[in-house]
Amino acid sequence: MIAYIIRRIAYAVPILIGVNLITFLLFFVVNSPDDMARVHLGMKRVTPEAIVKWKQDRGYDKPLAFNSSATGAAKLTDTIFFDKSVRLFVFEFGRSDQGRDIGYDISTRMWPSLAIALPVFLLGLVSYITFALLMAFFRATYVDFWGVILCVAMMSISSLFYIIGGQFLVGKLFNLVPISGYDVGAEALKFLVLPVVVGVVGGIGSSTRWYRTIFLEEINRDYVRTARSKGVSEMRVLFRHVLQNAMIPVLTGVVVVIPLLFMGSLITEAFFAIPGLGSYTIDAINSQDFAVVRAMVFLGSVLYIVGLILTDISYTLVDPRVRFE
Questions:
Q1: Sign of CA dihedral 111, 115, 121, 122
Q2: Is 214 helix (H, G, I), strand (E, B) or coil?
Q3: Beta strands of 267-311 (E only): which ranges?
Q4: How many Cβ atoms from other residues are within 10 Å of residue 226's Cβ?
Q5: N or C of the chain: less Cβ packing under 10 Å?
Q6: Chain-centre distance of CA 269, in angstroms?
């Protein structure tokens, strides 16, 4: 297992290098530092002197990947590529184009993102699996029929509808919780209730239908028929046998959510004015802060690869037949 984990980490390095190179090419070749300076300074009446000063203040006045005027190792290190891309591998994010410390911003903004994403993830996972097992238990009945119709209807509705509808119904009409904003400590709970509820409800349709498909596929397998022939109750078959043997596809679906636990939800945080990493990324895109966008792209790639490795490891915990040699 240890050797397998080491190999997976080694495989992740070329992937991160590729993501880093593609991001670098998009930001500094397709979109040159001069173009970035013009975007920040304004496209009209921008003097060459202002462009040069903007690049000097932010370290964009260096050669892209090779500094022929330097000596020794500085030929490679005294470049934009080393300062802005290579340092990301040791999680030195540097400063944003606005002058803020990106590492500090990430360390402070990740907690509001976790405060929303973690409850949505845990409550949603329990709710979706429970509803899917209920529909599988009453398969081919009116409960299953109308449950599928409800899931299809809910997954056909845009997530914006749940956000705006929840803000109007819960926050505006009944005035139960604040519509948007954030606070620290226990006061933050009243701001988190509505985003968490909206996040869970918005995922019921697609997630429940997907889990139902997995459970129905397991129900038709031979080991389920064997358990029934031995007199095992249907509830025990579902929760003891079907759920346990369906954990591998369930875990595979869970991995795509892991990066969002830290990165935050772009739409949810933007609409509810939560100062998390999602809104941080949106603000960086709107303000054309390319340093922040690069850092968030790289961080998202790292988290997704970590999620894949953790998923593979969890396979061995839920299914003893899985072994990595």
A1: positive
A2: helix
A3: none
A4: 11
A5: C
A6: 13
Of 306, 297, 127, give the one whose Cα is nearest residue 199.
127
Contact predicate 179/274, CB 8 Å: no
Residue 28 tokens read as 């500094």
Compute and round to an integer the Cα radius of gyration of the chain: 25
pLDDT digits (tens, 9 = 90+) for 86-128: 888 888 888 887 888 888 998 888 888 888 888 988 898 899 9
Record the tokens describing residue 104, joined without a space.
């500090």
Helix/strand/coil for 95: strand
Q: How many Cα neighbours within 13 Å face the side chain of 87?
A: 18
Nearest to 37 by CA among 18, 19, 50, 28: 50
Report yes or no: 271 and 158 within 8 Å, Cβ to Cβ.
Answer: no
Residue 78: pLDDT over 90: no
Between 204-219 and 189-202, two packed helices, what is the crossing angle to 10 degrees? 50
pLDDT above 90 covers what percent of the chain?
A: 6
Structure token digits, residue 107: 């360390």
| Amino acid at residue number 45 | R
Would you state the structure tokens that stand for residue 261, as one six-digit string?
A: 């636990």
For residues 137 and 235, what is the distance between their CA atoms, to the nearest angstrom?
Answer: 8
Q: Record the tokens describing residue 237, joined without a space.
A: 């078959």
Instruction: Kindly report the CATH number that applies to the domain delimited by 105-318.
Output: 1.10.3720.10
3-class secondary structure, 43: coil
- C-alpha 295: how far from chain center: 14
Could you say which DSSP state residue 64 is in? S
**In this predicted model, what pLDDT tens digit does every residue of 207-227 receive, in sequence order?**
899 899 888 888 888 888 888
Distance of CA 11 to the CA centre of its chain: 21
Mean pLDDT of the chain: 83
Q: Are 106 and 281 in contact (CB under 8 A)?
A: no
